[in-house]
Design a protein that fits this description.
By secondary structure, this protein is an alpha+beta fold. Helices cover 30% and strands 24% of the residues. Strand 13 and strand 14 form a beta hairpin. Helix 2 crosses helix 4 (118-133) and helix 11 packs antiparallel against helix 12 (419-436). Mean pLDDT is 76; it is low at 207-214, 256-262, 385-414, 466-474 and 571-599.
Length: 608
């Protein structure tokens, strides 16, 4: 079986503000599926041409007949891969390119009509088809995992803060590479998955660089597991297909001099470039092996967490597509040419995807065999070792040697294990068996428990929840004064919110209503007094505590001050609460200094 080549598409975005200010010239042209680039420093040099499966021209406006919209990108790539997923294949989409090239926009998009990215459109079509095809003979279940790889460490984006960091990547002889303890939550509707996506996107690590005001500093991997169960009405036998949809938004490659990074940003960029360089080595090794028609001697999957986890998607059981995002500006010529060469190498990779028919039953059967083998090995290690002056143990030898075990599709004998390694492997296999045998109702209960835990944590932090408890998230109250954060990125604005309750709302570290942390936060930092005014309006007064620094609209507050709707804290106050270099998600917004992504909060008053 020769397999299918990786589908590769390139997309050119419009000029951004930085490129417009520098009066950049467009050096990229597209004609059909051919993309050409011209060196601005050597105009007489021959133009370099590349041919891909798709070339999306999004540099102009929608009035251009050649303009590629978000919908066209999805219909060309996402819709086809979703169809393959319903046939039972594993599928994967990777977005690659330099920082600020438009990867996150292509994958996630924005909330404006017609601007949604590939991921929201795919999720919508997924549940629309599940609702259409579900019947008494056919049932579907969908589970979601969302993680980021930051500085070669894996963090779960769907668990409460403090529990999802530093997860261990392991490799099982039957399952291949996987993330231990990564949450896999059951979802039953588009609203459920949209809620988890919103929660995960706000927890992603982003930072500002000279090339991108909200640069993704981590690789984000969204995994959707689609299970289909069909019952034959004649034989009453059930068959099952399980496909994994992996949607990967890679962090942008960057040059330190162009991005203007230093300190932690520079370290982040080095880790990003390291993982992307390893990804390039893996792609080159796989492409070279395909050209030589032989198995490569060594592919450096384990040199990076990213490539280790994408092992199956790059050269194994998967239908894979890559979207390379390009900047058309002459000032980014070197980076754009590098991206085109990267994408051109990827076209030569071939994956051998197969329909995943009844994988759970097969896995459970093989895991049981593995557990029996490990228990037998532990029993063999239990007696004391026979020395020269001791008789060998009287335990009868096993009737037959342990059966061979399938390892990543091949059948081979596992290497000998020590007692400690066998015990660890036994516990790991038993834990995986328990997860595979978990019923759908148990998965829903576990998902609900995690949701309640997230809500309890947010409530403790002071972030508002709907009164009915039905939906976790941020919304704008109409009749309650509150604080929200501001950010240059619209997706990051108003994602942190605090109610100011009637009477006194205390802010600080100890015994307060809104708990904050940071080197300049006092135990009792400040308080808000919310009281009805003479004509029924709500009057909110800010009172700083002794020794605390509190700023409103750039001025330090030392006496009680009545707040108005739209009052802001200074951007520089952010560093008083939390270092801008922190890789963790931003802390709750503080009145008087901002712990928000932009370091700015805004107050809202309300009428009664």
């Amino acid at each position: 079986m020769s397999g299918a080549s990786v589908t590769v598409a390139v997309r050119v975005r419009p000029f951004n503000t930085r490129e417009t200010q520098q009066q950049s010239k467009c050096v990229v042209q597209m004609c059909g599926n051919t993309t050409c680039i011209t060196n601005p420093k050597l105009p007489n040099d021959s133009t370099k041409s590349f041919t891909f499966d798709h070339s999306f021209w999004s540099h102009t406006s929608e009035s251009d007949p050649h303009f590629a919209s978000q919908l066209r990108v999805y219909e060309s790539i996402g819709a086809e891969l979703l169809l393959q997923a319903f046939h039972g294949y594993n599928v994967c989409v990777l977005a690659y390119g330099q920082t600020g090239a438009g990867k996150s926009y292509t994958m996630m998009g924005t909330a404006e009509p017609g601007q949604r990215g590939l991921i929201p459109q795919l999720c919508e079509d997924l549940f629309a088809r599940v609702a259409k095809e579900g019947s008494s003979e056919v049932s579907f279940s969908v589970e979601v995992s969302y993680m980021e790889i930051y500085c070669e460490r894996v963090r779960d984006l769907l668990t409460p803060r403090g529990r999802g960091g530093g997860l261990r990547v392991r490799e099982h002889p039957l399952l291949g590479p996987y993330v231990q303890d990564l949450s896999r939550l059951a979802v039953t509707s588009l609203g459920d998955i949209a809620e988890l996506l919103d929660s995960g996107n706000k927890a992603r690590t982003v930072a500002a660089t000279a090339m991108n005001a909200s640069s993704s500093r981590s690789h984000a991997v969204l995994s959707i597991v689609l299970s289909q169960r069909r019952r034959d009405p004649l034989s009453q036998l059930c068959s099952e297909k399980v496909s994994r949809i992996s949607l990967v938004d890679l962090a942008g490659s960057e040059r330190a001099d162009h991005a203007g990074t230093s300190g932690l940003r520079l370290k982040e960029g080095a880790n990003i470039n390291k993982s992307l360089t390893t990804l390039g080595k893996v792609i080159s090794a796989l492409a070279e092996a395909q050209n030589k028609r032989k198995k490569p001697d060594f592919i450096p999957y384990r040199d990076s967490v990213l490539t280790w986890l994408l092992k199956e998607n790059l050269g194994g059981n998967s239908r894979t597509a890559m979207i390379a995002a390009l900047s058309p500006a002459d000032i980014n010529y070197e980076e754009t040419l590098s991206t085109l060469r990267y994408a051109d190498r990827t076209r030569h990779i071939r994956c051998h995807a197969v329909v995943n028919e009844d994988p759970n039953a097969r896995l459970i059967r093989e895991l049981r065999r593995e557990v029996a083998r490990l228990r037998e090995l532990l029993r063999a290690h239990a007696p004391p070792l026979a020395g020269p002056d001791h008789e060998p143990p009287n335990d009868p030898p096993p009737a037959e040697p342990p059966p061979p075990t399938a390892v990543n599709g091949a059948t081979e004998l596992l290497p000998p294990l020590s007692a400690a390694e066998a015990m660890e492997r036994l516990q790991e296999s038993e834990r995986i068996m328990a997860e595979l045998n978990e019923t759908w109702e148990q998965k829903l209960q576990r998902t609900e428990a995690l949701r309640m835990e997230r809500e309890a944590l947010l409530s403790e932090m002071g972030v508002a929840l709907r009164e009915d408890g039905g939906t976790m998230g941020v919304f704008t109250p109409k009749k309650t004064p509150h604080l929200v954060n501001l950010n240059e990125d619209p997706l990051m604005s108003e994602c942190l919110l605090y109610h100011i309750k009637d009477g006194v709302t205390r802010v600080g570290r100890v015994d307060v209503d809104i708990k904050l942390s940071g080197p300049h936060i006092e135990d009792q930092h400040c308080l808000f007094r919310s009281q009805p005014g003479p004509i029924g309006e709500v009057v909110v007064t800010l009172e700083p505590c002794e020794g605390a620094e509190v700023y409103v609209n750039g001025q330090r507050v030392t006496e009680p001050l009545e707040l108005q709707s739209g009052c802001r804290t200074p951007r520089t106050g952010r560093r008083q609460l939390r270092s801008r270099e922190s890789p963790s998600p931003p802390p709750p917004v503080a009145p008087g200094g901002a712990g928000s992504p932009s370091g700015c909060t805004r107050s809202h008053s309300a009428e009664r």
